[in-house]
Amino acid sequence: MEKYLSQLNDAQLAPTLQKEGPMIVIAGAGSGKTRVLTYRIAYLMSQGVDAFNILALTFTNKAAREMKARIATIVGESEAKNLWMGTFHSVFAKILRFEADRLGYPSNFTIYDTQDSDKLIASIIKEMNLDKDVYKYKQIRSRISSYKNSLITVKAYFQNPELIEADAMARRPKMGEIYKNYVDRCFKAGVMDFDDLLLKTNELLTRFPDVLAKYQDKFRYILVDEYQDTNHSQYLIVRALSDRFQNICVVGDDAQSIYAFRGANINNILNFQRDYDDVKVFRLEQNYRSTKNIVNAANSIIDKNQTKLDKVVWTANDEGNKIIVNRSLTDGDEGRYVASSIFENKMQNQLQNSDFAVLYRTNAQSRAIEDALRKRDIPYRIYGGLSFYQRKEIKDVLSYLRLIINPADEEALKRVINFPARGIGQTTIDKLIVAANGYNRSIFEVMEHIDKLEININSGTRNKLQDFVTLIKSFQVLNQTANAFELADHVVKASGLIREFNKDATPEGVARMENIEELLNGIKDFVEGQKELADATASLAEFLEDVALATDLDADKGDSNNVALMTIHLAKGLEFPYVYIVGLEEDLFPSAMSMNTRSELEEERRLFYVALTRAEKQAYLTYALSRYRWGKLIDSEPSRFIEEIDDQYLDVITPIEERRFNPMLDADIFGDIEPNKIRFKKPVQPSFKKKGKPVEKLENKTVTTPKNLKPVTQTNSNTNLFDNKLAVGNIVEHMRFGKGEVIKIEGAGGDTKAEIKFDNGGVKKLLLRFAKLKVI
Length: 776
Ligand code: ATP
Ligand code: MG
What we know:
nine-stranded mixed sheet, Rossmann fold, binds adenosine-5'-triphosphate, alpha/beta, binds magnesium ion, single chain, Arc Repressor Mutant, subunit A
């Protein structure tokens, strides 16, 4: 252990060696919070604390696995195995399974992913004859999710006039009823959704003091990583479990709280000292991850937020290169820039693909990047899209397996009852749903007893339904003796799935077959790993649970040599030598949906802070002047976040595409210089403004968009004045700066600029081609 403790600095050692009592480590990105948590667990174990008594909650299962592996190297494999480690959802799903009967759930309950929840909600809206344009299922789902995460049960909802009123005002007076139906249906189907895993844990711990006492006694030491992103439900669980021994250690960074939109409550970290007595507070200041340039730039960003704890972050690492800012004309050009830059970096610096990450605000942005990487033959992997387990063919197989474990599982049943086709139509299924609701039974039970029930279904169809019941029951019998792999292998054949997918000889069809094979391999691996478990049923249920809670980040074994593509939200806690943050444009990042209040904007800024602090050696910020969004090419302006970074940390370069059109840059003086290497000391963007420096000085004549370049954007006549006459004295409105008066116009055509004195006091010179001005 001594040897390992020497890998910590003094500030990190203090919380690591603090064995007892409530404690919080608040520190900036890359300062070793996760490392402290890991070493602290190893230290506790070396001090005689039993691994069974330690609970560690992480942000991803992958993080938990890595932490466990690290601890195993310190204290030994066999000891580390007994640690309870994982995400809130995966840890408490296990506990709920043990205690399910207390809450009236079967211990073989299955888990609905968001796709399943969406389908059930859509079905309920349809059954209730509601207008699906008013009652949008995705909105309803997120509303239900937020109720659950705030512990607002159906009963609590109907006792809260404010909530009822708010939904009525939002023209959704039936919201409460949908919520009730949804909860009833899930309960009847013996399933929990993701939010239930937390809500029901809370219910379990509050309603049953003996259960609470049992887990308080078990988890004598609790550690939570990324505490700033816990929601209310998670917060209450941690509080309840740690109440007896008060050995609670949380680590986090308020500046990296980025999940408020999903109910995370930054106050959990801010109020920690109020919640427990004698809290020890530790701060870490030294960043080990990034270069000085990156650390300082990140500091300068987060400085702009008003709501924050005072923190110091510095690094002894090298100065490093400046952050490269690149402008492209279109999102396609941006993708090509990123791909060629990765290519060059790889060649020049002997790097692996896995040394690079491309981070974006929204998943949709990955397409242009993917296209460009493919063209360059650079292998990449997208994280956080549709996970492997959510693909159609995989969900089909999993639905059969879910039905074997839990035949009441409504969404699993609906998915495969007529797939492969068995002549059971939607009308029949609708009738079964109505009957199931009427008899207060599951659909499967109705089908089992269809002979004795008065349902208007003809005898031919009744036979088909009974055949399906018989098929599932035969699988259940096999499940008594076969292991999960043997069972799954039989199911894909006997259900007709393989035959169905085999019919499709297109590349997509072949890929589907390969995916199914991959799934079977995965189940085989799982079975191998579970050999010591004699109970095959338990192992299939457990496999399904792992799968339901797996994200594709978890599936990454870390041995793949791919460029990583993911949203910034997903990148939290990770690190990469080279990081490209793309799409840094107003309305995209910060997102148009997050600019209504200061707190929303501050969350976007924290997101940018998280993004930049993932980089170890080199960060790139890129943006495009126009981009396809929702099928339309729209103009964009550089993100305010680029402007917010102190100039001294930036290196603004001119992209290759611009050079192509620029007579100055095409001149001989640049000879054979690689276009990507042409650097300009000063920012050149049309609306690139820096405090205290007039814009004119920053304009570099050699690189402004030349006149002969046709605008690549579709102009929107009332927002773009490229062709319009704008006169001195006009009052205009700018999306971001507000109202102002035109005081000067210069240039012509695509280069026309207007100097505008805005009501907020600022004077800005804007290139009309890109400024979204409205004359008023
Ligand atoms: P984040 O806020 O992004 O989650 P963090 O505070 O959890 O970051 P870690 O991921 O624990 O930081 O550490 C950042 C990097 O610095 C890791 O690569 C880690 O191994 C390294 N590191 C941390 N402490 C030390 C140390 N004392 N000596 C050497 N390297 C260290
Ligand atoms: Mg961390």
